[in-house]
Amino acid sequence: MAEEPERGILLSGEANVAARIRVEREARGWSTNALSDRLNDAGFEMNPSAVWRIENGKRRINLDEAIGFAEVFGIDLRNLVGPPQLAARARAMELIDDVIDAFRATQRANRTFSEARGALDAYLAEHPDIQEEADVMVSNAMAEEADRTWQRMHGQSARVADEEPTEQV
Fold this sequence. Notes:
Blueprint: H1 13-27, H2 32-41, H3 48-55, H4 63-73, H5 77-81, H6 90-126, H7 131-154, H8 158-162
């Protein structure tokens, strides 16, 4: 008799959800009754025996219920259906999402900056008499914004930080 091929861990979503629900519930020290109460308070009707049956693979979970569990646990739905081994790394997944979101925001900001700079350069090409003054204004404003950002991030002025300390006598 041939062995059944192992199912990929990501292909067993419903089993992942069941295991993850148990992990999340136990990590919080909640009983099935406490979890049921929280689900009901959040508007997702479920009795404690249904929670137990889902956790033990005796009952399937529908999408609305999965959404309810994710909401009560304060995690993304996709993290709920992921491999239970990642449960301990849920925070890493959230931080990865934050990094990706921030990267996308920088890409949008870079595109917006490039479009604005291109529009200014096109205008200045038509008005060369103001180009030098406009370039100085842009450079100064960008330097001031960079300094403010440095101060927010490091608590001091970039200009002060770059200066050499003076020796006091």
